[in-house]
Amino acid sequence: MHWTILGAGAIGCLWAAQLQRAGASVGLVLRSPERLAQFQSRGGVSLIDDSGETFCPLSATLAATPRPIEQLLLCTKAYDSQAALESVWHRLNADSRILVLQNGMGSQQQAIERAGNDRVLIGSTTDGAYLRAPFEVVHAGHGETAIGRFDSTAATLPDCGPHFGLQLRQDPAIKTTLWRKLAINCAINPLTALYGCRNGELATVQAYSRALDALCEEFEAVARARGIPLFDGPLRDQALLVVRTTANNYSSMLQDIRHQRPTEIEQITGFLCNEARLAGIDVPHNRAALQQVRQLQHNRGIVSPSTSASPKSLSN
Ligand code: PAF
Question: Taking the CA of residue 81 as centre, how many other CA atoms within 13 Å lie in the half-sphere pointing to its CB?
Answer without folding.
Answer: 29
